[in-house]
Amino acid sequence: xxxxxxxxxxxxxxxxxxxxxxxxxxxxxQPHYVQNFVQAIIDCIPxxxxxxxxxxxxxxxxxxxxxxxxxxxxxxxxxxxxLVGQNGLLSTPAASCVIRKHGAVxxxxxxxxxxxxxxxxxxxxxxxxxxxxxxxxxxxxxxFARTKAIGDYRISDAxxxxxxxxxxxxxxxxxxxxxxxxxxxAELMRTLFDFEALSKMFASGFRMRxxxxxxxxxxxxxxxxxxxxxxxxxxxVNGEPKPDFGGHHPDPNPxxxxxxxxxxxxxxxxxxxxxxxxDGDRNMIVAPGLFVTPSDSLAILAAHAHRAPGYxxxxxxxxxxxxxxxxxxxxxxxxxxxxFETPTGWKFFGNLLDxxxxxxxxxxxxxxxxxxxxxxxxxxxVLLWLNILAATxxxxxxxxxxxxxxFGRDYYTRHDYEEIDSGAANRLMDGLRAKIGSLPGTRIGGxxxxxxxxxxYVDLVDGSVTEAQGVRVTFAEDARIxxxxxxxxxxxxxxxxxIERYEAAPDRLELPVADVLGPVVAVARELADIEAITGRxxxxxxx
Length: 543
Ligand code: G6P
Ligand code: ZN
Description:
Elements: E1 3-7, E2 21-24, H1 25-28, H2 33-43, E3 52-57, H3 63-76, E4 81-89, H4 92-101, E5 106-110, E6 122-129, H5 137-147, E7 152-156, E8 167-171, E9 174-179, H6 183-192, H7 195-203, E10 208-211, H8 217-228, E11 236-237, H9 258-264, E12 272-276, E13 283-287, E14 290-292, H10 294-304, E15 317-321, H11 327-335, E16 338-342, H12 350-354, E17 360-363, E18 367-370, H13 378-392, H14 396-407, E19 409-420, H15 422-435, E20 443-444, E21 447-454, E22 457-458, E23 465-466, E24 471-475, E25 479-485, E26 493-503, H16 513-528, H17 530-534, E27 541-542
Parallel strand pairs: 3-4, 3-5, 4-9, 10-11, 10-12, 15-16, 15-17
Antiparallel strand pairs: 1-7, 2-6, 5-6, 8-9, 12-13, 13-14, 17-18, 19-26, 19-27, 20-21, 21-24, 22-23, 24-25, 25-26
Helix pairs in contact: 2-3, 2-5, 7-13, 10-11
The structure holds 6-O-phosphono-alpha-D-glucopyranose and zinc ion.
Catalytic activity: alpha-D-glucose 1-phosphate = alpha-D-glucose 6-phosphate
Cofactor: Mg(2+)
InterPro entries: A-D-PHexomutase_a/b/a-I, A-D-PHexomutase_a/b/a-I/II/III, A-D-PHexomutase_a/b/a-II, A-D-PHexomutase_a/b/a-III, A-D-PHexomutase_C_sf, A-D-PHexomutase_CS, Alpha-D-phosphohexomutase_SF, PGM
């Protein structure tokens, strides 16, 4: 077999977003589209000669074809070894774990996360660096620049590799190891959590449901929860990864994981409910009768993490993305550790984790993680919750209530206006930015604006500056509204409005969320003139 150079012309639209290049499958199926992007990534890995690369994805439609293409391009570009998950599968956190453990220069991870899959669904390609984390903006910018200048790519003409069989083979002198996608990850989890205590808890009748939403975490959850920890068979539902996620929208929130949500709010609720997304990095936690917001989950995990062996020494610090509620800040203050506020996107946690400034971090978008890998990690969050439940002996719902009683409660909701016109979305954000200076001190809908700004982040490790990350407005009544445009959509623009209000009085901890936040929601609509500018009277999704 030999490798060849194939002439190609650039596509203008291969700009990576919040989390890699994400487009509809038909876009990726255009001639040379995948090849161009993979070659552009590889051109931005200077030390590739003889190096190790990791390849894998969430198993969605088109996953396997792209794995085969990436393998052949890697072989033609001089890599020494590729580690690829069996059947082309690797959850995002497992890919991060494998990159770190095997000293790879990076990984090509195929996923459109929680977006629907299938021939008309979404697909994505992202690059993670040698620390196992999403490439920083400087690298994604370089990749984008390369895609605009590309004139040819190099590819081996070897036949497709059998990805079903674990073992070692070769393409044009490059070693290919097809690995068990679960093994390294499961071993890492064993070092962090008290598997013995968890096994005892399950043996004594603790019941849970884990809904894998027919996405990649099924095999991981089955191997760890049902296999290693002895949870009852059937604990993991929708556990077979499917190319179209069995028609599921693999986003673990009360809307898309409604079966789990309903079970947990019904008479047969088990002790604990959890779900994960398409590529396994997000999580949803539901206690019996009580949905735990991702922001609250992060705060509760931060308060109790020391109960798990991997975090027994305490936390160096914590971080949250800017639109995530301020609940974790209150825990950090009590623990007397640093709390950081970063822009949306997991990559912004990377430097803080690498520098040892934080141990735990999380986002309102259902991502929670720690320094064990450089991605958010759905199953890890579930195991940390379980470890805390085992260590405290408290039911999950009691743990949440005790947390509110101690720290107060940050009522929280997010309103998404999906697929709105991009021009209108930009006009709305520009309008808000223009108002920022005049807002402080104004009274609107019964609330008084305390401060308003457009979030700007200075990375304290490398000094890089990221501008215009969302408009935030805080109120004297301890409420906050944040507006930003999504960076992960594949059609039009999505406006996200994040609304929260803090309550600490003991008789105000269990009010209906809509009652507490209603007035703030009304102010959010008025302040940004949402209906007039977007033509939408109501958001498309409320979580
Ligand atoms: C991906 C990233 C997350 C980020 C989320 C935001 O899932 O991995 O770190 O929070 O996108 O998406 P958005 O659509 O709000 O830009
Ligand atoms: Zn994801």
